[in-house]
Design a protein that fits this description.
This protein is of the alpha/beta class. It has one domain: Spore Coat Polysaccharide Biosynthesis Protein SpsA, Chain A (Alpha-Beta Complex). About 25% of the residues lie in helices and about 20% in strands. The protein has 6 helices and 10 strands; from the N terminus they run βββαβαβαβαβββαβα. A hairpin with a 2-residue loop joins strand 7 and strand 8.
Length: about 210
């Protein structure tokens, strides 16, 4: 009997939030912070293990997630771009992991149900190298990458995210249709944050738009 794949979640939360002008992972949301919401949703999923990559204000952020059973990894080179956080997270992944799911530290609305849908479709797909959630024809995050791709991710430089590998694996990407518009939105600016709060106050839990 084939064993279920072991998938490690890697929460990318090392950035300085230069467009926001303050550390967005620390912003309050639903009696928590954005980072706590992301981590709690990941913990409620079927992910085998969770790694949180921190950089800017790492001490303050690490205190927020104590006791959640996650592994905290520090990225001292976070100012050199997202590729450094991808590598820092991968370096903490054990040999038993079959794949990783990269979660953004500023997507508090992505649910554990959406995470589990991505994981289950990956298992049924006979382990596609890249799995992406799709809402109304648009690709979003979190994105799953199998071990096959790890060496390519580790070779990335600067502010180059794993998205740059999509062309390389274009013919083998599995798209998973989800009923979760929040995969398309993250918090980059003060406007985004205020829109998130306004949307939540109206009782909605999903896409709050941009622009």
């Amino acid at each position: 009997m084939r064993r279920a794949p072991r998938i490690t979640g890697i929460v990318l939360a090392a950035g300085k939030g230069s467009r926001m002008g303050r550390t967005k992972q620390l912003l309050p949301y639903r009696d928590q912070t954005l980072l706590e919401c992301v981590v709690d949703n990941a913990c409620a999923s079927t992910l085998d293990r969770i790694i949180v990559v921190l950089g800017f204000q790492a001490d303050a952020l690490a205190r927020l997630i104590v006791g959640r059973g996650v592994t905290v990894v520090l990225n001292p080179s976070y100012e050199s771009g997202q590729s450094t956080s991808l590598r820092a997270g991968l370096q903490a992944v054990t040999d038993e992991a079959d794949a990783v799911l990269f979660l953004l530290g500023d997507q508090p609305l992505v649910t554990s149900e959406t995470i589990n849908r991505i994981l289950s479709d990956y298992e049924r797909s006979q382990h596609s190298p890249v799995v992406l959630p799709v809402f109304e024809g648009k690709r979003g995050n979190p994105a799953l990458f199998s071990r096959e791709t790890f060496a390519r991710i580790e070779a990335l430089n600067g502010d180059c995210g794993a998205r740059s590998l999509f062309a390389e694996y274009a013919g083998r990407i599995l798209e998973v249709t989800v009923n979760d518009p929040s995969i398309l939105t993250d918090i980059d600016t003060e406007e985004d944050y205020h829109r998130l709060l306004e949307t939540t106050e109206r009782g909605k839990n999903g896409y709050f738009g941009k622009g």
